[in-house]
Amino acid sequence: MKAEARPESIENDWDVLYRDYADVYDRFAAVPKTPTWSEVVGERFDLRGKCVLDVGTGSGRSIARLAPRAGEVIGLDIEAAMLAVARTNLVSIGLEGVRLVAGDSAQLPLVTDSVDAVTAITLASLYYYEPTVAFCREAERVARPGGVVITVNIAPRWYGGELAEVVLGMPRSEMQPTEREAALADCGFEWFDYFSVADYGSVEDTVATYGFIFGRRAIARIRDEGIHSVRWKTRVHYKRVPGAGAGETG
Question: Residue 138 belongs to a domain with what CATH number?
């Protein structure tokens, strides 16, 4: 039977992306951003020598950026395809001492008070209110007193970066924040924003990664205007788990 041709775009279906096109997600995640989220987080939070659980670790790129700043890193993801890519990536860069585990962000397979920090870098399940609250509850359970929970996500009204209006087909002023914002606020998280620029290298590489994910309208704009880099606004939410210890800079 002839293999089904890959579509031009998955039109923002992230579940399909994670399940069927982990290679595209990996290339998208590997695109350099200036500054990187790990630089921003590393400047604000002291993870030196700490045990960090990275929830929704995806293709392992987040682990690779966390490992040099931490003592031990555990990567968790619910998708077997993502964990397979992560294992390959970690072997290719010679990164040792990292443990990969399968699991759900709403029911973390770790014992209570077992890590110093929990990170979630663009975790897809942090979109609706209840899954976000469930993650917060579990993250605070597995983090030791004085530890920190950190999430990094696209800022409200910046889905798709500076091309948000093209991707969503509406003015930025009409876009509504995800339920994640209310959930994290109710769970006692603080936040700050920063800007970065992602350079995809060429127009066709932008189409093959960014356009494949964000839709045909984005692809048309990329080709019409010769776009190869996209500006993003990112929001970092964080919460210190009650108790002594850890130590935060900034």
Answer: 3.40.50.150
Comparing C-alpha atoms, which of 103, 109, 117 is closest to residue 57?
103
Distance CA 85, CA 139 (A): 24
Report yes or no on 100 lying in a domain. yes
What is the C-alpha to C-alpha distance for residues 54 and 182, in angstroms, rounded to an integer? 22
Whether the ω angle into residue 35 lies within 30 degrees of 0, i.e. cis, is yes
Q: Does residue 207 belong to any structural domain of this protein?
A: no
Six-digit token string for 197: 């620029």
Number of structural domains (the chain) is: 1
Tokens 């620029």 correspond to 197
What's the pLDDT tens digit per position in 112-148? Answer: 999 999 999 999 899 999 999 999 999 999 999 999 9
| Residues 155-180 pLDDT 10s | 999 999 999 999 999 999 999 999 99
What is the span of the domain harbouring residue 93? Answer: 14-160+172-198+232-238
Interatomic CA distance for residues 40 and 166, integer angstroms = 28
